């Protein structure tokens, strides 16, 4: 029997959204992002936290088991492949994926840890990291959202969350968006679903935050808005008492 998404996260089919989020965070805590299990855990969370996706998955599981048989849960296999796992049925607009690629500042190595022997107190470092996490959740929507009707206003809003060095990178990439969005009448909006700390340096002034979100794209050639699900690693740095975005690494989950 192929493990279900519940098996991947080690939760019961009756698990609440809160339990699924907690299991997802635990599942990725000690994994490198290149590990298949990391991607599988993210895929499982994407399916199970989406009401329609979860309902479809439950129906698929029910259809695979004869009515007289009770399902027997199996532990998740360490090497489970995303390709061999149940499909979500969602698709990501190719144009939006191009925008995602443009906004990605480069690969960020992920490793979850909060050191216990630091130059500053562990509590202070953790407090700083939590502040950076909240700021990342606040920043990611304006940084990854825009409308063809107010491009310069959106650019200015996003730049207020960025370090000076990343503003230069962002401006170059946003210029490409500005060249295309008016003709396609494109608007992209994001919604944060959850986030998790994945790395902090030893003095708590540089933090990586994994943000789990969906983004909705509207275009004149779309009959209806299209939604993609992404995980974004946001690199946050402390500058004069404020936390600013210094890099993004985006991975679509569809």
From TrEMBL:
InterPro entries for the chain: DnaJ_domain, J_dom_sf
Domain J, residue spans: 4-61
Annotated spans, Disordered: 65-85
Keywords: Membrane
Keyword Membrane: yes
Predominant location category: membrane
Compartments (UniProt record): Membrane
Membrane as UniProt keyword: yes
Family matches, as PANTHER family: OUTER MEMBRANE PROTEIN RV1973
This protein's name: DnaJ domain-containing protein
Native species: Nocardioides deserti
């Amino acid at each position: 029997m192929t493990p279900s998404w519940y098996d991947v996260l080690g939760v019961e089919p009756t698990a609440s959204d809160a339990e699924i989020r907690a299991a997802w965070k635990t599942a990725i805590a000690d994994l490198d992002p290149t590990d298949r299990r990391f991607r599988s855990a993210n895929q499982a969370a994407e399916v199970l936290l989406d009401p329609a996706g979860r309902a479809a998955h439950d129906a698929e599981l029910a259809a695979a088991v004869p009515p007289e048989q009770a399902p027997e849960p199996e532990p998740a296999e360490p090497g489970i492949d995303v390709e061999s796992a149940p499909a979500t049925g969602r698709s990501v607009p190719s144009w939006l994926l191009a925008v995602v690629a443009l906004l990605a500042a480069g690969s960020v190595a992920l490793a979850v840890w909060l050191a216990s022997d630091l130059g500053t107190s562990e509590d202070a470092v953790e407090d700083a990291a939590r502040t950076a996490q909240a700021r990342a959740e606040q920043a990611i929507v304006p940084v990854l959202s825009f409308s063809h009707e107010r491009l310069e206003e959106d650019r200015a809003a996003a730049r207020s969350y960025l370090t000076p060095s990343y503003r230069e990178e962002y401006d170059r990439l946003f210029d490409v968006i500005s060249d295309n969005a008016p003709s396609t009448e494109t608007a992209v909006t994001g919604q944060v679903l959850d986030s998790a700390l994945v790395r902090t340096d030893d003095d708590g002034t540089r933090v990586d935050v994994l943000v789990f979100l969906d983004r909705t794209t509207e275009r004149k050639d779309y009959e209806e808005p299209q939604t993609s699900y992404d995980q974004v690693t946001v690199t946050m740095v402390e500058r004069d008492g404020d936390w600013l975005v210094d890099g993004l690494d985006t991975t679509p989950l569809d």
